[in-house]
Fold:
Amino acid sequence: MNQTSGATRRPGRASRRGAGRAGAAPFVGHTVLVIASAIVLVPLLFVVYLSIKDIPGILGTPLSLPTKVHLENYSQSWSEGDLGQFLLNTLIVAGATVAVILLVSSLAAFVISRYRFRGNQLLYLFFVSGLALPIQIIALPIFILIENLQLLNTLTALVLVFASGGISYSVFILVNYMRSIPFELQEAAVMDGAGPLRIYWHVVLPLVRPALGIVAVFQFLTAWKEFFLPLLLIQDPQNMTVPVGILSFVGEHTTAWQLLLAGLVIVSLPTIVGFLLVARQFRRGLMSGGVKM
Structure:
């Protein structure tokens, strides 16, 4: 009798232990997310905090509460740093880069993923091989090519270089997404008389919108924050982008820290607001199961 009751109690204890472990898993996950968020947010909030202080407060007592809130740092940073022009240039370059990448990479991914032909895999490897090529290795050839094309100090040069650098990643993502689309849909469209371009536009593209959104957000942010290539290709202040233009507050001997920090806050706002607006669609794309590696 005791053996029977003991046997019946053991599964109960095991189930309770399993339930305890299952209940602890969300807590651990949430704790990790909170810590990761703090690692990202605390430096950003500290920059905002320092941006409303004066130079003695920033350099002398950065952790102390400011005796006066210097909101004029923002207006002065905007006017003296020509941030409006830098933001416009960056927006043009990032927007045009995303448009070129989406067009070229979606067409290439459509051909590679939806059609079988000799050299199909070789073409795919050609595109994704760019992922293994650091931009610093080809910086000199890029500079010489852009100079020969007489595109130095132009936004067009940045768009072409950014787009060529982002196509490899985009093709990799879109090919794996498009391969998950049933071929029966394509065959049905062919039977209805649809050609390749019509299939691409009316059948495939609507189904890969989550992946296109992921590519667009990633490539836009990449183009927005790129520093090395604009520094290499742009010397005209009127065509500088934000990452390079913001350095105008850094002098040879002195740095206008209050203006630099206020400028960093200003130029960060468009990307933060933009990402918050598309965050739901971005998460939906990641969770839809479309991006299959």
